Structures are given as structure tokens and as C-alpha cells.
Amino acid sequence: MPAFLLFAAAALPAAAPDQPADAAPIVVTGQPLRDLPTASAYDVSTIDRARIDQVPSGRIEDALGDVAGLQLFRRSDSRSANPSADGFTLRALGGNAASRTLVLTDGVPQADPFFGSIPLTALNPGDIGTIRVIHGGGSGAFGAGAVAGTIDMTSAGPDERGLADGTAMVDDRGDTSVTAGIAPRLGNGFAVVSGQWDRGPGFWTTPLGQRVSASARARYESWSLATRAVAQLAPDVELQGRIAAFGDAQTLRFAGANTGISGEDASLRLIGRGAWQFDALVYGQLRNFNSLTLSSSTYLPVDNQRDTPSSGVGGKIEVRPPVGHGQALRLGVDAREVTGYEDEDLYTRGALASHRREGGTNDDIGLYGEHAATLGPVQLTAGARADRWVIRGGEIATTALSGATLTDTAYPTRAGWTGSFRAGALVRAAATIDLRASAYSGMRQPTLNELYRAFTVFPVTTQANPALTNETLRGIEAGFDWHPARAFKLSLTAFDNKVDNAIANITLTPTTQIRQNVPAIHANGTEAAADAHWHTLAFSGSLAWTIARMEAPGQAYDGLRPPQTPRLSASANLTWTPRSGTTLGVTVRHVGVAFEDSLATAALPAATTLGAFATAPIAGPFSAVLRGENLTNVTVVTRNSGGTVDIGPPRTVWAGVRVALR
């Protein structure tokens, strides 16, 4: 606790430096440094604060669903999915509980240190100002995690959220959701204090025909608290600090099958916007996870992953020296170390039989640089990254109830260097058309979870694999952006991506699978996006069509589609704002057929869902809010394993009140 208090003191807005009496005050922004001028050479999707606020479920993963082709490991959201499996990927590169997409909040990686999944309940949508989804591999800061792309989230400040805001909602099942925040300006800086609390009896994830006496609704309760402060240290230097904590508890499928995750975060970031720009960041993360698994036949305990403490620490230093008109250069170094161990109780016929401990440490230090140049209508960019990676301290040990050691295997340290690159070009071919093309590569280490942790989602057991090697990506893409009018934009991108040594769950028997390096997952396809505004109407849509295959000559899964990967996904949103403060919106989402397993035998049928949002002023700062999820009550199969099926949220209607003080 003293360390957190010291951090909080450092993060509070400092007194502004002395200024002449008639000088205009310098107001800090809390924003990162601007992108290099050639960032538009890459396929980028942007989700603004208004859209984040209007998604049918009010959850951050729902907002990200606007980007077709961006998928979670499973089709369920964070209310009913195991939090250790909330990993994102892009471009049909294969469903994976670990995120193949780098997720950043104010420059800080969000991946869980042990699992590599993203703690969705820790990401309060009310705190987010803008989300940028960069498709394809990256070579910039923390680029070692950007195999499929990057989700870059920036926090909202007082200009976006006002002095105070809050929303209270209840749905037709009795679930409740409360969010609140204040964002006062303090001198030349500001502070934001916010929180969120969701809870409820949940819905049935087990279809009616498969329910038994032990079946239970997906009960959930989650909360998050965060404090962020921004202070001016010099006319062109600002300090950004953040402290956050969260907790999430769920019941999955059976009564007593409880899962939980919790965490604490702290970060400090120093931004310089002078002639020599710089970005210095340091952060620390603590996490813990627990999960009790019950047998699907006896409903007795099978294993109790009772304690999984893990930590992530890291930072970066980036400088941008002045290099002349029409050019930009950034050079940097980043580092991340993750450590975690799981303590697990194993049961036989419901009786405690033994204990198991597994885990280790992964390190990564990256050196990167990127140069951009504008030559008339042509913009060029090229960057490279070198990663020194280390896998060390790996151990899997089992002990008897007496304390006697049954097995104890320590795995040797592995280390090496991996290089990656990114290059792109944009040509303003006409006043209304931009042509772009890029090529890139990337790398991802296996997570501690993939290396050392076995788990069971009855009746299927997934084995760990301490011999897993790094995933590496190579990809190319080309496309155009057509903007014939200020209120209309159409984008089209064709891509070809290949991940070598892709980590996937490979079926061995009907009840056993193992994590293995698939020789390659090869995906090529097309992505399209459109945005249009006409008076009070606004439309946005996206579509992804991808042909993806696993390449593993001689293996049973060679040539088959990767698990959890649809060929077609699409999203469309239409909003009508007849007057200030009143908005009506509908969202349609479609996801095509996918398969649960590597042998493409367990189908996840296609599904099309309809959602809605409405808000209208009541009086003063108060507004009424309505949300609707899956209004046509479509059955969305989220898991199909060993004959057992899980389904997503049924029709859900929310009503509530919002307050906003400017």
C-alpha cells in the first residue's frame, strides 16, 4: 500500500511552472504522441466515444464487434466466458485463448501475465475515448504481441466526458449495471476517478435439452475502479499516471463451478511534445485467477485451480528527434517480464488426491525504429524491431497429500533473438482516392498458460506443452480508401497472412487435446468498411471474408479451417439523431459457421443477431436509456465440445437513467 500511495502522490497534478501574468494557460491533453504521418498506410479501423457509448450490451467487447474479423476466442462475452479465454485475434488466424492481438490502454499492454488473455471486465467503456484497431503485424512499441494486429485504446478526459457522468441500468432478468465518474480540471491538469459495477443472476448457457439438476445460470459480479491524473511539468512536458483495480466472479455451467479473476495496475507515463519528442512509460500489474471444475457426469470436483498469482512489469523509452520537414523518426526500447505460478488441487471421484504447481517466467526486450517520409502525394514508412526473448524458470510439480513429491520437472531456459519489420506506402492517387500497401512480420511468445497449465472443460482435457516455440507472422496487404464526400468513406483491403508455428489446441482423442505448434496457418481474404452521414442519419459497417487453412502435411487436420474461425463475419450500425440528446440506433451482426475442434467435426452454426440502443432527455442533465441485445432471440452456440453445448445471451432488454454534467 505505501507504494501505491507514493504513486498516487506522484500522479496528482503538480503546480504549473511560473508563467507571465498575461500568458495563456497551457492545458495538458492526457493524449499520447501523434502517430507518424504515414500511419494511414496501414488498414486502421476507428471506434469513437459516441459509438462505444451506444453498443447494445454496453460492454467493450461489443464495441469491438463493430470491426468484422476481430473476434474473441469464443462467441460469448465477458459475462459468461471464462476470463482466462478472452483472447482477441484478427484475419481468421485461429481462435486462441491467448490474444494474438496486442491490446494497449494509454500505451500499457493489457494481456494477462499468465494467460495472455485480456481482462475485459477491467476495461470500463466509460473510460475510453477512442479505439484504433490496426490490422496486421506491428513492429513498434511492445510489437512482440502484435501478431494479428493492435487494439490501441486511449482514455477519455474532461473534454470528452464532462465534469461528471453516471448510468444505472437494469434488465428483464434482474441484472444491474452501474457506472460513474468525475473528471475535474485541477490547475493546468486534470484527474479522472471512475468505477463500474455489474452483477446479476445471468442467463442459461446450457440448452434446455442438456440441463440437469446441477445446471446453473451464468451468475456474474464484476467491478472496476480507476484513478487517472495528468499534470503539466513544463510547457511541453506532461506526466500521466493511473492506478486501477478490478474483480470478476462467475458461475460457469454448474452450481459451484465458480471462477474468478482480480488485479491491480499502476503506470506512470512522461510525454514530451517539444522539438525532441519523447514517451517514457513504466508499469506494473498484479493478477490472480481461480477456477473450480466439476465433472459433467458426477458434478463432483475434478480440479480446483485455487490460486494463480502472476505479475507483469515493464516499460518503454521512445524518442523522436527532429529530422526535417516531411519526415519523422522514432527510436525506442521496451521491456516486459511476466511471472506466474498456478497452485492446483486434483480430485479423484470427488476426493482430494494430490496437488500440482506449474508456471515460470517469460522476458522480452525489444529495440525498434521507424522512419516516415512524405514526398508530394506519396507517403512512405519503414520500421524494424529486434526482440530478445527468454523462457525460463519453467516447472511442473505434483505432490501427494502427505507432502511427498510425486513428480517435479524443471525445464531448461530457452532464449534467442527474433527480428521483425513493417513497411508501407500510401499514394494520394486522386482528390478522393488513397491507395495503400504494406508488408510486415511479427512474433509472439507462448504464454505461461500454454506452456505449463493443463485444464479440463469436461469432458475434454487440454494438455500443456512446455516445448512450444514462438509464433511468427509474415503478411502483405493492399487496399484503397475512397472518400468522394466529407460525409462518406469506403475502404477495401485484400490481405495474405501466414503464421508459422501457430499455437492451437489439437485433438488427440474425443476427450483429449494438446497445445501444439501447427506448422502454419495461412489466411487470405478481403475486408471492407463504410461510414456515411446524411443529416440526422449515420451508418457504419464492416465485412470480412477469409479463407483460412492449417498447413500440416501428414496430419489429420492438414488443410482444415483453424478452430473457432468463421469464413464470413459482418457488422452494420444505423443511428438516427433527430435532435440533441436523442439517439435511436440498431446494430446487426453476423458470424458464419465455425468449428470448435481442429478436425472440423464440432460445428458452431452461423448466427445473425439484432441489437438496439435509444436515449432521450428527461430533464436537466438526466436522460432515459434503453438497450436491447439479441432482440430476435437467436440461439448462438459458443462452445461445442464432446457433445456438450454452451449458448450465448438470449433476448435481453435494459432500461435505465443517465446523468451528465458538463
CATH class membership: Mainly Beta
User: At the third CATH level, what is the topology name?
Assistant: Maltoporin, Chain A
**End-to-end gap:** 34 Å
Individual helix count: 5
The computed structural class is mainly beta
CATH superfamily: TonB-dependent receptor, beta-barrel domain
Strand content of the residues, in percent? over 45%
Query: What is the alpha-carbon Rg in Å?
Result: 24 Å
Global morphology: globular
Q: What is the strand and helix layout of this fold?
A:
Layout (H helix, E strand, L loop, with lengths): L1 H10 L32 E5 H6 L5 H5 L6 E2 L15 E2 L11 E5 L2 E2 L18 E8 L13 E7 L2 H4 L2 E8 L4 E7 L2 E2 L2 E12 L19 E15 L2 E15 L6 E15 L4 E18 L6 E7 L2 E11 L6 E22 L2 E25 L2 E23 L4 E6 L3 E17 L2 E12 L3 H5 L2 E3 L2 E4 L7 E15 L2 E22 L2 E23 L2 E15 L16 E12 L2 E10 L2 E2 L7 E2 L2 E13 L2 E8 L7 E5 L2 E4 L4 E10 L1
Parallel strand pairs: 4-7, 25-28
Antiparallel strand pairs: 1-6, 2-3, 4-5, 6-7, 8-9, 8-38, 9-11, 10-11, 11-12, 12-13, 13-14, 14-15, 15-16, 15-17, 16-18, 17-18, 18-19, 19-20, 20-21, 20-22, 22-23, 23-26, 24-25, 26-27, 27-28, 28-29, 29-30, 30-31, 31-34, 32-33, 34-35, 35-38, 36-37
